[in-house]
Design a protein that fits this description.
- The complex is a heterodimer of chains A (about 190) and B (about 575).
- Chain A has about 190 residues and is of the alpha/beta class.
- In chain A, about 50% of the residues are buried.
- Chain A contains five helices and seven strands, in the order E-H-E-E-E-E-H-H-E-H-E-H.
- The radius of gyration of chain A is 17 Å and the shape is globular.
- In chain A, helix 1 packs across helix 4.
- Chain B is built from 16 helices and 17 strands.
- In chain B, a hairpin with a 2-residue loop joins strand 15 and strand 16.
- Chain B is globular and about 70 Å long.
- Classes of the chains: A alpha/beta (about 190), B alpha+beta (about 575).
- Chains A and B meet through strand 3, helix 3 and helix 5 of A and helix 1, helix 4 and helix 7 of B.
Chain lengths: ~190, ~575
C-alpha cells in the first residue's frame, strides 16, 4: 500500500476580525469531526505575516482556507488551483496579507522548499471588523468548506473519515463572555 | 506650497500606516503618521476571565504573537502579586529570546534590506571578488565563490524570466542606491540564507510553544511545559539539547553575517547617520529576568533625554513606580471622543472618526507620553540606555560595531551618529548579538535548575473579590510594550495595550509635540517625489508593525497599497 501523502490544511485569518476568522474556525471544525491520517496536519496559523512561507514548506500539498476578495455573494466558497492561487487578490482583511500567498509561494521557490501543490479554498466574507463571531452567511458556508477540503484530501490520496463521535471544537474564541458582541453592537450601545 | 506625498501603506508586513510628508526643495518639511485602522481589543476582553486574556491578545498581530501573550500573563500576575516558578521564567525567556532573534533577522533581511540593496545590480558582481571581500569581513562559510555564483545564477534566472519574484517591490536603479555590485550580491546571498536561520530561531519557539505562530504553553502563573527528562512527550533532555543547538547556530549567524552586514552596509551610507534622529528621548524596560521574582535582568531598562547619555536613569524592576506613574496617552489628535490625556488604567475607548484633519484628528493611534514628553522606543533605546548605564554586553558590542564601521568608512563615527535612521539598524543588530549570547545563559539556568530537582512550572492564580489593577511589561523586538489590566471580581473590567509602534507611530499630542516617526522624517532628503525611497528607509528603520500599533477599523473598507505624489 502506498504511504499517505504529506498534506497541510492551513487555516488563515484573524479570529478577532469577524468573518476573517473563517480559516482557523474551519480547521477546528475539521479537527473535531474527522479522523485524518498522521501525515495530514491541521494548522490554525492565524495571520502569520512574513512567516506564511514557513507553513508551506516541504509539504506534498497544502490546502489553504482563507477569505478572498471576489465579486460574489458573501459565503461563496471557491476552490483555486495552480496558477489561479497566485492570481487571487489578497483578502479584504484590514491588516492585509502582505506578503500574500503569492509572495509566500515565491519565497519557498527561492529557498528550494516549495510544496508540491498549493490549493486555496477561498471564502467571500460579509463583514471583516472587530468581533469574534461569524455572520450567518459565513456560518452557513462551513459545511461547504468542510466538504471541499475533504474532497481535495481524498483526491490527493489521504484517507479521511468522519468521526463516529465528534469532539469539542477547539475554537475557544467563539465562546462569548457575558456581553460579547461585535463592534457594531458596541458602537450602538455607546453612541 | 511644497509637494505633498502620501505613502499608504508603508509597511511591507501586516498593518496599515499612512504617512503624509510635505516636501519642499528636496527635503521633508512636515509630516503626519496615521494609523488607518482601529483594533479595540479592550472591547473583546471586557468581562472575560483574566486567565484567558493572553489567548486573545496574542491574536492582535500575527507577527508579535508571543510578545502580546507573555505581556498579558505578566500583567495579570502583577495584578495578583503572583510569582511564577523559576523554570517558567526561563522557559518564557527562551521563547522571548528566540522570537526576538527571529524578528530582528526578518526585519533586516526580509523587510528592510531592499531599501538599501539593489538586487539587479548584483548581476554586475564578480562572485570571486565578492567572496574575497567577504573574507575580510567575516569567517562565515556561506560566502564561498561557488555559493555566490549560484546566487547570481538564481537572480539572473529571475531577471531573465521578466519578473523579479520575491524582489518585485524594490526601488531598483534609484539614485539613492549606492552599494557596489559585490556588496549587493553578498546581501542577496545572505537574504536567502537568512530564510533558513530565521526558521531555526522559530523552531525554538515551536519546540517550547507550538508549531503555529500562536504559542500554546502559557498560563497565568507559569507555563504548561511539563518537565520530565525521561518522557518523550514532555520537555526532556533531547528537546533541551535541540534548543541549545539551534540557539548556537542562530548566534553564529548573527555574529558572522547579520552584524557584519549591517556594519558594512552602514559604512557605505554614511549620510544616513545624519538623517532620521527625530525624538531623542528614549525608553526601554528591563527584560529576560534572571530569577523567579524578577529582581535581576539580562537586558537593561530606563530612560534618557535629548540624546544625552548623562541623563540616563534606569528602571531596576518591572514595577518601577516611575514607569507606572509616568505613562499616559493623549487622544488630542486621535479618532476618539474628547481630547483627554489619561493613564492607561483610566482610559475609555470611544471611537470618534472625523476625517484626515492636518490640524485636528488624523489617526487611530493614540499618542503615548512619558512624563508628558514623546519617547522613542525600540532596540536603539535599549542599547543607548544600556550603554549609558554600563551594561557590559551592550558596551562591548556597540563599541565593536561603531569601531568596525568607522574603520570601513575610513572616518570616525561618533556615538551621536546613532541618533539616526542607520543607528536604529545598527542598534538592532547589536541587540540581536547581545540576546543571542545571553539566551544560552537562560538555557544553562533552566538545565541547572532542573538538575537540582526542581520541576515546578506553575503557581495557581487566585482571584480575590473586589478590584485589582496590574500591568505587565516586555521589551519586545519593536520596543517597550505594556499591558494594563483592571480586574473586578475575577473578570476583566478594563484592558489597554500600549504597544511599541504606538509610542513610535503615534500622532501629535495636546501640545502639538510630534511622535517619533513624524519628527524623524522632518529634514529627510527626497530625490524623487514619485519614488520616495528615503522616506521609506526612515520609517522602516523603526520596524513598523502596525497591526499592533493600531487600535483598528478602516472606515472606508479596504485600502490598496499606493505611493503617490500630490
Amino acid at each position: 500500500m502506498a504511504s499517505e501523502p504529506s498534506i497541510c490544511v492551513l487555516g488563515i485569518g484573524s479570529v478577532l476580525m469577524g468573518d476573517d476568522g473563517i480559516g482557523p474556525l474551519a480547521v477546528e471544525r475539521l479537527r473535531a469531526a474527522w479522523d485524518i491520517p498522521e501525515a495530514v496536519e491541521l494548522v490554525d496559523a492565524g495571520t502569520p505575516g512574513p512567516d506564511l512561507f514557513h507553513y508551506l514548506e516541504d509539504w506534498e500539498a497544502v490546502v489553504v482556507v482563507d477569505t478572498v476578495h471576489a465579486e460574489a455573494p458573501p459565503g461563496t466558497v471557491r476552490l483555486y488551483r495552480g496558477e489561479e492561487v497566485r492570481a487571487v487578490p489578497p483578502s479584504p482583511r484590514l491588516s492585509p496579507h502582505d506578503p500574500n500567498l503569492r509572495q509566500a509561494i515565491l519565497t519557498t521557490e527561492m529557498a528550494g522548499t516549495a510544496p508540491g501543490e498549493v490549493l486555496l479554498v477561498g471564502v467571500v466574507p460579509a463583514r471583516v471588523e472587530l468581533g469574534t463571531e461569524l455572520t450567518p452567511a459565513l456560518q452557513a458556508a462551513l459545511p461547504e468548506i468542510e466538504k471541499t477540503v475533504i474532497a481535495e484530501l481524498q483526491r490527493l490520496g489521504a484517507s479521511a473519515s468522519r468521526k463516529a463521535h465528534p469532539g469539542h471544537s477547539g475554537a475557544w474564541w467563539t465562546d462569548s463572555p457575558t456581553s460579547g458582541g461585535s463592534l457594531r453592537d458596541f458602537c450602538r450601545r455607546i453612541l | 506650497m511644497g509637494q505633498r506625498i502620501v505613502i499608504d501603506p508603508i509597511t511591507r508586513i501586516e498593518g496599515h500606516l499612512r504617512i503624509d510628508v510635505e516636501v519642499d526643495g528636496g527635503r521633508v518639511r512636515d509630516s503626519w503618521s496615521s494609523g488607518q485602522m482601529w483594533r479595540g481589543i479592550e472591547i473583546i476582553l471586557q468581562d472575560r476571565d483574566p486567565r484567558e486574556a493572553w489567548l486573545f491578545t496574542q491574536r492582535i498581530c500575527g507577527v508579535c504573537t508571543t510578545v502580546h501573550a507573555i505581556c498579558s500573563v505578566r500583567a495579570v500576575e502583577n495584578a495578583l502579586g503572583l510569582e511564577i516558578p523559576a523554570n517558567a521564567q526561563y522557559i518564557r525567556n527562551l521563547i522571548l529570546a528566540a522570537h526576538t532573534l527571529h524578528d530582528h533577522i526578518v526585519h533586516f533581511y526580509h523587510l528592510s534590506a531592499l531599501d538599501w540593496v539593489d538586487v539587479t545590480k548584483a548581476l554586475e558582481a564578480d562572485p570571486k571578488k565578492a567572496s574575497e571581500l567577504a573574507e575580510t569581513l567575516s569567517p562565515w562559510p556561506g560566502n564561498s565563490r561557488r555559493q555566490l555564483e549560484a546566487v547570481k545564477a538564481k537572480i539572473k534566472a529571475l531577471v531573465d524570466s521578466g519578473q523579479l519574484g520575491i524582489f518585485t517591490n524594490g526601488y531598483w536603479g534609484h539614485p539613492a542606491m549606492k552599494l557596489p555590485p559585490e556588496v549587493n550580491l553578498l546581501a542577496v546571498a545572505h537574504y536567502l540564507q537568512a530564510l533558513e536561520y530565521q526558521r531555526k530561531a522559530n523552531q525554538v519557539v515551536a519546540i517550547l510553544g507550538s508549531k503555529t505562530p500562536n504559542i500554546q504553553n502559557l498560563a497565568v502563573g507559569g507555563v504548561a511545559n511539563a518537565i520530565n527528562l525521561d518522557n518523550e512527550a514532555t520537555l526532556n533532555m533531547r528537546k533541551l539539547y535541540q534548543i541549545k543547538d539551534l540557539l548556537t547556530e542562530v548566534k553564529t549567524f548573527v555574529e558572522q553575517v547579520y552584524l557584519p552586514d549591517v556594519i558594512a552596509i552602514g559604512s557605505m551610507y554614511p549620510d544616513w547617520l545624519g538623517y532620521g534622529a527625530g525624538v531623542t528621548n528614549y525608553m526601554a524596560v528591563p527584560d529576560l529576568p534572571l530569577d523567579a521574582a524578577a529582581t535581576e535582568f539580562d537586558l537593561p531598562g530606563g530612560t534618557l533625554s535629548n540624546g544625552d547619555l548623562s541623563t540616563a536613569r534606569s528602571f531596576d524592576t518591572w514595577t518601577d513606580p516611575r514607569f507606572e506613574k509616568g505613562v499616559s496617552e493623549s487622544i488630542a489628535h486621535a479618532w476618539y471622543d474628547g481630547d483627554w490625556t489619561r493613564h492607561p488604567w483610566d482610559e475609555e475607548t470611544v471611537p470618534h472618526y472625523t476625517d484626515f484633519e492636518d490640524d485636528g484628528k488624523y489617526s487611530w493611534v493614540k499618542a503615548p507620553r512619558f512624563d508628558g514628553v514623546p519617547m522613542q522606543v525600540g532596540p536603539l533605546a535599549q542599547v543607548l540606555v544600556g550603554y549609558a548605564t554600563g551594561h557590559a554586553g551592550i558596551k562591548k558590542w556597540l563599541d565593536y560595531a561603531v569601531g568596525q564601521a568607522s574603520a570601513l568608512a575610513k572616518t570616525p563615527i561618533p556615538l551621536s551618529g546613532l541618533h539616526s535612521t542607520l543607528g536604529r539598524h545598527l542598534a538592532r543588530a547589536v541587540r540581536a548579538q547581545v540576546i543571542a549570547e545571553v539566551s544560552l545563559g537562560h538555557w544553562q539556568r533552566l538545565v541547572e535548575n532542573i538538575g537540582d530537582g526542581d520541576t515546578e512550572i506553575f503557581n495557581e492564580p487566585v482571584f480575590p473579590k473586589g478590584e485589582q489593577r496590574g500591568f505587565g511589561v516586555h521589551e519586545a523586538p519593536r520596543g517597550t510594550l505594556s499591558h494594563w489590566v483592571v480586574i473586578s471580581n475575577g473578570k476583566i473590567a478594563n484592558y489597554q495595550c500600549v504597544v511599541p509602534s504606538t509610542w513610535n507611530a503615534g500622532p501629535r499630542d495636546e501640545h502639538g509635540q510630534m511622535g517619533p516617526y513624524e519628527a524623524s522624517l522632518v529634514g529627510n532628503p527626497v530625490a524623487d517625489p514619485e519614488r520616495p525611497l528615503e522616506v521609506v528607509r526612515t520609517v522602516h528603520s523603526f520596524d513598523p508593525c502596525l497591526a499592533c500599533a493600531i487600535h483598528t477599523l478602516d472606515p472606508e473598507g479596504r485600502e490598496v497599497a499606493r505611493v503617490r505624489a500630490l
